[in-house]
Amino acid sequence: MSQTLTAAETSTSTSTETPGSKTFKAATMAPRRWNDLSTDIKTLVVSHIIRPSDLKNVCLVSKQLHEIAVRTLYHTVSLDLGSSTDLRLGAFLSSRNIGLPHVRKIRLYLANVLDRCNQLQQAHFAIRMILEFLPEDCLEEFR
Fold it and tell me: Which of 28, 65, 76, 114 pairs as cysteine with 61 (C-beta 3.0–4.6 A)?
């Protein structure tokens, strides 16, 4: 293991300090704060959060974490189509939805409703709208 010492450390360093000694560890392993971590490390940590509700909460912590978590939150989107009470499609297709550029997988399902007469037409319309609002060539999966 190679070690680079600053001028101050070099002047007080003795020949008995080796990579295994307590003095060496204390000088090189200063505690890190969350804000000191690189964006790549924070992204790696956030990628292990599975539940969408937890990702949503991470988005509320700070602007930087919002930018990181929204990518994971919108990577895979599942929507039920054809339900009269489903408002998620409208919110998803909003021009203010900053998650749209991060969508890579979309899974569409027909809602389980009693009145299915217009459901297929609504589904076709929804598919056209989704494809219209998403950036080109961003999808890896669409089913």
Answer: 65
